UniProtKB/TrEMBL annotation:
Lineage per the UniProt record: Eukaryota, Viridiplantae, Streptophyta, Embryophyta, Tracheophyta
Protein's name in the database: FBD domain-containing protein
InterPro entries recorded: FBL60-like
Organism this protein belongs to: Brassica cretica (Mustard)
């Protein structure tokens, strides 16, 4: 039997590997991706030197034709930082939405946006202020694109930190 998947809701831990995933018909993906460090979920951000034992590489590659992507947690955006070398070019991605409740997830945004050449709309739903580094990353990534950016929250931008 052959299935055509056009919508996906993925709320789970990322396994140590995926088989090759072919989601060419995928139109919309809602992602809440949690990873493990040493096969344990720490309920905190993974650090640069941590032994991340989850690997979403084949999932990212399989959904490269998605048109609408909703990252439903700061952990999901962080996956694009830790696996930045595996991010495919999302040629068809037109709408990206990011929901976060943390100030710490913005480093993945640069790598993701650099691989979305046709992105038209970026919506950021944040429940905490976006730190200065996050705003700089957003400006740097969008300066060469015509992009509508929606910032949805009270007090989304915090003042620059003093040096």
């Amino acid at each position: 039997m052959f299935f055509i998947v056009t919508h996906s809701d993925y709320y789970d831990f990322v396994p140590s590997s995926y088989l090759v995933v072919n989601l060419n018909s995928l139109v919309e993906a809602n992602l809440d991706l949690l990873v493990t460090v040493n096969h344990t979920w720490l309920a905190s951000f993974a650090l640069e030197n941590d032994n991340i034992t989850s690997n979403p590489t084949n999932l990212f590659k399989g959904m490269r034709n998605v048109q609408i992507m909703n990252l439903l947690s700061h952990e999901s955006l962080e996956r694009f930082y830790f696996f930045r070398g595996a991010i495919p070019v999302f040629e068809n991605l037109l709408h990206l939405s990011i929901t976060t409740m943390s100030e710490c997830c913005w480093r993945g945004l640069v790598f993701l946006l650099n691989n979305c050449p046709n992105l038209e709309t970026l919506t950021i739903k944040s429940f905490v202020p976006m730190p200065y580094q996050g705003r700089v990353a957003l400006i740097r990534c969008t300066s060469e694109q015509t992009l509508i950016v929606h910032l949805v929250a009270q007090g989304l931008c915090s003042p620059p930190e003093s040096v």
